[in-house]
Task: inverse folding
């Protein structure tokens, strides 16, 4: 076996030595690695699917960064890789009735479908223990847009164009895989370290069925599209266009287009599509035209996202997007070797990564790969 060791040394590359040099020596990594090696002792002889369940102990929890109806979101460290992630913990006590458990399972299956779409927060893995369901995501360092605009002025129109285009493209990438988000709003748009918007929170999203239009209800009152309020089974991609119209208006003026102290009055205004441009000196005619075309009560006369992106206000050459960098082959190899050195069998790593298993080894792979996939270019509109 010494021969084998030497031969394998030769395969190792600079990336491997970088990872094992910076992480391999940590006490917690060595302890977890021992646990992994033990768990996989019987792997070679196992028939069928091998399950390696993640424990919460594979993460070190940091501060809480968000709170929703069912759970909390924490900043956390993925111990094996040292990567910073977001960990959403949903208490099972709140999920006692079957329908809330079904909702969580639905959120997870939609997350798996959209993870990897451009402009969408990436899901790394999902696991559970007796108390909680945990979802682990890439961490958006600059938080959500509500928090962001608390300390920043609104964008000028040219910057708004660049930024909104990215958001609209991200929403379109969801529609292309058959998902309507249904809750697009400031809270659910995060910013990564390069100020790139990342859509999150698929808690009430709808999977489109071409045979059967969706009738889903619920959402955030001021962003609700008329067809959601009417609940007549007309929910589709144009529902997100409405919310994005509300968002665009809000980003331009600093307040939403439909306002009322009473929810019923608010819904009346939305159903009639009654809103105004109150400030005469803000917003070009083209931008106002775009907003009005997104806030058409009848979905049939509302723009689609493709049309939004072709609208004269948005279709300017200055807002060209940059594609994420592909993962260099040697980096991929280095990550594989590092994960193997921790005790995961090579076949298990390959299987988990290629089949997007959303287990711990694919989560570690994606977290390390993210460092090389992140965009070089910087969305500088916020600088
Ligand atoms: P629900 O509405 O289904 O209850 P939620 O609102 O509790 O969901 P999220 O919207 O997913 O859950 O997260 C809540 C908040 O936590 C976000 O608004 C954001 O501030 C923060 N957050 C969530 N995910 C991340 C992430 N990946 N990186 C950084 N912050 C995040
Ligand atoms: Mg939310």
Result:
């Amino acid at each position: 076996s010494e021969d084998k060791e030497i031969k394998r040394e030769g395969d190792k590359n600079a990336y491997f030595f970088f990872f094992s040099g910076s992480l391999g020596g940590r006490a917690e990594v060595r302890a977890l690695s021992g646990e992994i090696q033990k768990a996989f002792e019987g792997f070679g002889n196992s028939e069928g699917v091998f399950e390696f369940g993640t424990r919460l102990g594979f993460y070190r929890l940091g501060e809480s960064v968000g709170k929703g109806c069912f759970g909390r979101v924490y900043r956390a460290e993925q111990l094996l890789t040292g990567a910073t992630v977001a960990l959403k913990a949903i208490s099972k006590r709140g999920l006692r009735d079957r329908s809330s458990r079904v909702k969580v399972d639905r959120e997870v299956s939609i997350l798996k479908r959209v993870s990897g779409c451009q402009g969408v927060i990436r899901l790394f893995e999902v696991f559970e223990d007796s108390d909680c369901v945990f979802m682990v995501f890439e961490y958006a360092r600059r938080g959500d847009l509500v928090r962001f605009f608390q300390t920043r002025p609104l964008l000028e129109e040219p910057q708004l164009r660049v930024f909104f285009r990215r958001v609209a493209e991200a929403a379109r990438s969801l529609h292309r895989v058959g998902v309507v988000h249904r809750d697009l709003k400031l809270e659910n748009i995060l910013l990564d370290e390069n100020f790139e918007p990342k859509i999150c929170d698929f808690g009430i999203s709808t999977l489109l069925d071409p045979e059967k239009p969706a009738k889903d209800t619920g959402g955030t009152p001021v962003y609700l599209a008329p067809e959601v309020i009417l609940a007549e089974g007309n929910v589709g991609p144009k529902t997100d266009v409405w919310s994005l119209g509300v968002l665009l208006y809000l980003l331009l003026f600093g307040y939403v287009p439909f306002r009322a102290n009473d929810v019923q009055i608010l819904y009346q205004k939305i159903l009639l599509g009654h809103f105004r441009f109150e400030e005469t000196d803000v917003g070009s005619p083209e931008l106002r035209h775009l907003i009005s075309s997104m806030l058409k009560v009848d979905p049939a006369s509302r723009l689609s996202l493709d049309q939004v992106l072709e609208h004269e206000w948005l279709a300017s050459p200055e807002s060209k997007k940059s594609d994420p960098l592909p993962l260099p082959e040697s980096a991929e190899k280095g990550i594989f070797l590092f994960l193997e050195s921790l005790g995961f069998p090579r076949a298990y790593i390959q299987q988990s990564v290629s089949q997007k298993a959303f287990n711990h080894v694919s989560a570690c792979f994606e977290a390390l790969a993210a460092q090389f996939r992140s965009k070089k270019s910087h969305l500088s509109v916020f600088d």
